[in-house]
From TrEMBL:
GO molecular function, one term: hydrolase activity
Domain of life: Eukaryota
Keyword line: Coiled coil, Hydrolase, Membrane, Transmembrane, Transmembrane helix
Coiled-coil portions: 204-271
Transmembrane segments: 285-306
Protein name: p-loop containing nucleoside triphosphate hydrolase protein
Length: 309
C-alpha cells in the first residue's frame, strides 16, 4: 500500500444522520463529497469528507454501507492517512430516534474501539433549543449512548456552527496519530465479504428477515389472486395483482441488498484503483474521488489556522 502523491495527504470524516448538520460543517451539499484543502503546508493536503446517513430515504442501509466501506477501503489502499472522525448529532432531538440509534450502532462497528480516541462527538443546532434544555439533552446522550466512547478517549462537545470552532476541531484531529478503522482492518482480509464485517453483520439479519416477510406476502397475494379469480371478482383480482407487482419490486430491491453484502469490497476497490492508475497519475485525493465517484473541490490556503501558509 503506497501513497501515489508526493504530498502528505490526510483526511477527516464527518458522519451523522441526515439533518445533523454535516453539509453545513463541510460546506458541501452532495452526500459523500470530498473537499480537499490544498496548500495547507508545503507538503500537506487535508480532505474533509461528508458521508451519507443510514436514514437515507432513497438508498437502503446495505447500499449506504457498501458506499462508505468502498470509500474507506480505497482511502486505506491509497495510503491516505485518516486522522479521525467528527460525528454530529442534533441537540434538537428530544431523544435519539430509531434511525439515529441504528446509525450510531453502525458507526461504532465501522470504527471499532481502538479508533474511539480519534472521534469527536459534536452536538449541533443549539440555536433551536434553550441552553438549559440543550445541556440536559447532551448529558442524556453522554450517559445513555456516548459514555463508552468517552471512556475510550472520544471528545464530547457542543458545536455552535461557526467556522473557527469547526477549524479548531479539525486541528485537534490533525494533531492525533493516524487511525485505521475496524472495518478497514476487516476488509484487508481479501476473503472478507461486506456482510462478514462487524458493520455488515448488523445489516445482514434485517435484510434476510425482510426477504422472508416479502416472500410470505407474495404467497398470500398469490392465494388471494387465485380466490378472487375463481370467484369471478375481477376488480379484486386486479387490485391484488397490482399489489403483487409492487411487492415483487420490493423483493428485487431486497435481493439487491443481499448481493451488496456479498461484495468483496477490498478487491472491488483494488480493481478500480488499478484502472484509474492506468489512465492517470494524480494525487491520492483525485484518484479517491474518481474511484469512489465523489465530487471534489479544491480550496487554496483555506486552513491558515494551522500556522502554515
Amino acid at each position: 500500500m503506497t501513497t501515489i502523491s508526493p504530498r502528505e495527504e490526510c483526511m477527516v470524516l464527518v458522519m451523522g444522520v441526515t439533518g445533523a448538520g454535516k453539509s453545513h460543517f463541510v460546506n458541501k451539499e452532495p452526500p459523500l463529497s470530498l473537499i480537499a484543502y490544498s496548500d495547507v503546508g508545503e507538503d500537506m493536503s487535508v480532505a474533509i469528507v461528508d458521508t451519507p446517513g443510514f436514514d437515507d430515504t432513497v438508498r437502503s442501509d446495505a447500499e449506504v454501507l457498501h458506499e462508505i466501506t468502498r470509500f474507506l477501503s480505497t482511502q486505506h489502499q491509497l495510503g491516505i492517512r485518516l486522522k479521525g472522525i467528527i460525528y454530529l448529532q442534533s441537540i434538537n432531538e428530544v431523544r435519539m430516534r430509531g434511525s439515529s440509534v441504528r446509525y450510531f450502532e453502525m458507526f461504532q462497528q465501522i470504527c471499532g474501539e481502538q479508533a474511539f480516541s480519534n472521534v469527536i462527538l459534536l452536538t449541533t443546532m443549539w440555536d433551536r433549543v434553550p441552553e438549559s434544555e440543550g445541556r440536559k439533552r447532551q448529558q442524556q446522550l453522554r450517559e445513555e449512548f456516548w459514555n463508552t466512547l468517552e471512556d475510550r478517549g472520544s471528545t464530547i462537545a457542543p458545536f455552535d456552527g461557526s467556522a473557527p470552532m469547526a477549524e479548531g476541531f479539525i486541528m485537534q484531529l490533525l494533531a492525533k496519530e493516524d487511525v485505521v478503522l475496524q472495518v478497514q482492518n476487516e476488509l484487508d482480509d481479501s476473503r472478507c465479504l461486506l456482510g462478514q464485517t462487524s458493520a455488515g453483520r448488523l445489516v445482514l439479519p434485517n435484510v434476510k428477515h425482510q426477504l422472508e416477510i416479502t416472500a410470505r406476502e407474495l404467497d398470500e397475494l398469490d392465494k388471494e389472486i387465485s380466490i378472487a379469480n375463481s370467484a369471478g371478482r375481477q376488480e379484486e383480482r386486479i387490485r391484488y395483482e397490482e399489489k403483487k407487482r409492487d411487492t415483487l419490486k420490493k423483493m428485487k430491491r431486497e435481493k439487491r441488498d443481499l448481493e451488496e453484502l456479498k461484495t468483496n469490497v477490498h478487491s472491488e476497490a483494488a480493481e478500480k484503483i488499478a484502472k484509474v492508475k492506468k489512465s492517470m497519475w494524480k494525487s491520492g485525493f483525485q484518484v479517491l474521488a474518481t474511484v469512489a465517484g465523489l465530487s471534489i473541490s479544491i480550496f487554496v490556503n483555506l486552513l491558515p489556522f494551522l500556522g502554515v501558509y
